[in-house]
Design goal:
heterodimer; A: alpha+beta; three-stranded antiparallel beta sheet; 11 helices; 6 strands; globular; B: mainly alpha; nucleus (chain A)
């Protein structure tokens, strides 16, 4: 970098035609942070500990090999730590990997969470049932039952039609997908929480999903 | 009824002499009346310029018809009579001349006619006067017709002083007389006493006769009188009052008695007429009127004047009697006349001929688009991960050729395969020269062993052969069949059996007590 600046200064003093614009390569993560290493730490909830152990290699391989991010599990602190390397191409890789791990911690499957690594515009949205409607006791249980449906078919129906992935963790709901899609999924889920029957939600889904598909 | 034919004058005399009530009832007087009419008609005939009838035809003729005949004659006479009267009005001296003439003539013809008093009816007298005017014009002055006329003629002779103010339309004397007459009728004074009474009598009689609208032939006379009216006649009719027709209160008590008090008052009034002054009388009348009005005000109003009325507050069916007026908001139903129906039928016929029925046209349906593939909601968990889903989508958008087949495509493929098979079979059945499809050998990789070795083991072995003899039977010693046994051996077996049984029973005495049925003896 210093040489190029020197060259520029020299060129200015001499009456020569201006040189072509210098082309700088994008900064590496390392350089951007001035050689410092960046960290991310993702906490592991206790219920996800054993699934993490089972699926560790599936997590490790894409992060380490494709994202070029160092990843390790700190057993004492029960956290997954991510660190940039020297050859990490892009700063966003770290964030994507962190998001990927975090999505796994929330409860998403590896193939679904991997999409976070591969696509930019996917987000995870979370909300609670009590945000939508205050329910207690049996009503809450019934609402949760309504959300998933028999054998989970309502949830799958929403997932398939809106191209999202949904995780219902007791009273928390997480939606993974593109912004517009997750909005539709959220609307359907809210409808179900409020009490509309599954059939109604299905019909609405059909209408909306066809429109979404047309648009794309 | 004896039909005695009277001669003209006699008939007239008889008519005059009959009492007025006789006219009211149908009686033989009708014949007399007819005779009189005929006589008078013939008398007047010479004066009629356009006379068409020789005599008055009464036999078998209707009242109306007889009247028509008389009327016809009198219509022709009227103009000439008017002229004569006008002449007399201008020149009163001529009357005297005529009177002398008339006297002479009358003496020659009939004596009685001169003494005719107007006691029948004023109109009758008038008529007679007018009828006989041509010859006997002294009737005008001798007979008691209108006092006005007499008065007029007398007074005309008397004062010619007021010539300046008066002209042919306005006469002061006439005015005064008119006023006095009005007062008389209003307050009941006797204006020219005798004459007034007589006049009233005459009027009453005439009223009586006027009132009864019978088929009596006397009507002819009345109508004659009316028909033969002069200017004076017209004047008199113009001054006709209620009392003329329906009588004064003291005479008509039988006929129209609504208010007894009124009548009493009238009677009282009439009785005290002579004692009270004009002013007092006027005041009494006013008082009575006031009392009447006050009484009316105090009484409850008629239901139509009471404002809002329900059906309970008015008498039953009273709304039917009153002419109610209210707005109808609805258009009245069209009156179906023959013309309306005829016009409708014509319209229908013309429409049928033209074949122009206003049938409803079905709206043309829009050209249908191909039905979009209805995306079915998949209830099951998707086998692809989210990444694969997006990947597939992206690949389809970017490179449609490389895109993996969707479910619908697979279904289509399957369907087409099935159809091809079916077609093949049908062709085999139907074509005359059927050529089967060439077999395309498919190359596919299969896991098949390269070599097939012969096996050492026998190919087919039965189960029985597989078992060794020991496995089939395990037993010791010499085995004999029952038929081969000797007697001793049989005994030995039996003894052995018994010993065994005893040993068993000694071991289990308790069981024996429980079930005795299972033991075999």
């Amino acid at each position: 970098m210093a040489e190029s600046i020197q060259m520029e200064i020299q060129s200015v003093t001499e009456p020569e035609p201006l040189p072509c614009k210098p082309i700088f390569k994008p900064l590496k993560a390392h350089e951007m942070s001035d050689g410092k290493v960046q960290f991310r730490k993702v906490a592991v909830p206790p219920n996800r500990y054993s699934p993490l152990k089972k699926a560790w290699l599936d997590i490790y391989t894409p992060v380490f090999d494709q994202m070029n991010i160092d990843i390790r599990m700190n057993l004492k602190s029960r956290k997954v730590e991510l660190k940039t390397r020297a050859d990490t191409p892009d700063v966003s890789n770290l964030q994507k990997s962190a998001d990927f791990v975090h999505a796994f911690m929330l409860g998403f499957d590896i193939p679904d969470a991997i999409s976070l690594l591969r696509m930019d515009e996917l987000y995870v949205e979370s909300f609670e049932i009590k945000d939508v409607k205050t329910l207690k006791g049996k009503h809450l249980s019934r609402a949760i039952g309504r959300l998933s449906g028999k054998g989970g078919k309502t949830k799958f129906a929403i997932e398939n039609s809106t191209k999202t992935r949904i995780v219902i963790a007791d009273t928390r709901i997480h939606i993974l997908g593109a912004f517009s899609n997750s909005k539709v999924a959220r609307a359907s889920l809210c409808g179900l929480i409020m009490g509309s029957p599954a059939g109604k939600v299905y019909s609405k889904l059909r209408a909306v999903s066809s429109r979404l598909a047309e648009r794309c | 009824m004896a039909t005695v034919k009277y001669s003209g004058i006699e008939a007239l005399e008889k008519l005059k002499s009959t009492e007025p009530p006789v006219f009211l009832a149908p009686s033989s007087i009708s014949e007399v009346a007819r005779a009189v009419s005929q006589y008078l008609f013939t008398k007047l005939k010479p004066h009629d310029p356009k006379s068409q009838l020789d005599q008055l035809w009464v036999d078998g003729f209707d009242t109306e018809q007889i009247w028509q005949q008389i009327d016809m004659q009198s219509q022709h006479l009227l103009p000439s009579l008017r002229q004569e009267v006008n002449r007399f009005v201008k020149n009163p001296e001529e009357i005297r001349k005529l009177a002398n003439l008339a006297l002479k003539v009358s003496h020659e013809d009939d004596v009685d006619e001169m003494d005719m008093d107007g006691f029948d009816s004023d109109e009758d007298n008038e008529l007679e006067a007018s009828e006989s005017e041509g010859e006997e014009e002294e009737d005008d002055e001798e007979e008691e017709e209108e006092e006005d006329d007499d008065g007029e003629e007398e007074e005309e002779e008397e004062d010619g002083d007021n010539e300046g103010i008066e002209d042919k339309f306005f006469k002061i004397k006439e005015l005064e007389e008119f006023l006095e007459e009005g007062e008389a009728q209003e307050y009941g004074t006797d204006y020219k006493n005798k004459k007034g009474v007589a006049k009233r009598k005459n009027q009453n009689l005439s009223d009586d006769e006027d009132e009864e609208d019978d088929e009596d032939e006397d009507e002819d006379d009345e109508f004659d009188a009316f028909a033969g009216g002069d200017d004076e006649e017209a004047d008199k009719l113009g001054r006709a009052r209620y009392d003329d027709f329906f009588g004064g209160k003291k005479k008509e008590t039988n006929m129209k008695l609504k208010d007894l008090s009124e009548d009493e008052e009238a009677e009282r009034e009439n009785q005290g007429n002579e004692k009270l002054s004009t002013h007092e009388r006027a005041r009494l009348k006013l008082q009575s009127k006031i009392e009447q009005m006050e009484k009316a005000n105090l009484d409850p109003k008629h239901w139509t004047m009471q404002g809002e009325i329900t059906a309970a507050k008015r008498p039953m069916n009273s709304a039917l009697e009153v002419d109610l007026d209210f707005e109808h908001n609805a258009r009245p139903a069209p009156v179906i006349t023959e013309e309306v129906t005829a016009s409708l039928e014509d319209l229908i016929k013309s429409r049928i001929i033209e074949a122009r029925f206003d049938d409803v046209q079905r709206a043309p349906s829009l050209p249908t688009k191909g039905k979009r593939e209805a995306k079915e909601l998949d209830d099951s968990k998707s086998k692809k991960g989210l990444a694969e889903v997006y990947e597939a989508e992206y690949v389809q958008k970017a490179n449609p050729a490389f895109a993996p087949t969707t479910l619908s495509d697979e279904l289509k493929k399957e369907a087409s395969m099935l159809f091809k098979k079916l077609c093949l079979k049908l062709d085999a059945l139907s074509h005359f020269h059927f050529t089967p499809k060439p077999v395309i050998e498919e190359m596919s990789i299969q896991n098949v062993p390269a070599i097939a070795m012969e096996e050492v083991a026998p190919v087919a072995v039965s189960d029985a052969a597989m078992l060794a003899p020991e496995e089939i039977f395990s037993g010791k010693g010499d085995i004999k069949d029952e038929s081969e046994l000797t007697q001793e051996e049989r005994k030995r077996r039996r003894a052995k059996k018994k010993r065994k049984f005893k040993a068993e029973s000694a071991n289990e005495p308790a069981k024996k007590a429980r079930d005795t049925s299972t033991e075999n003896p």
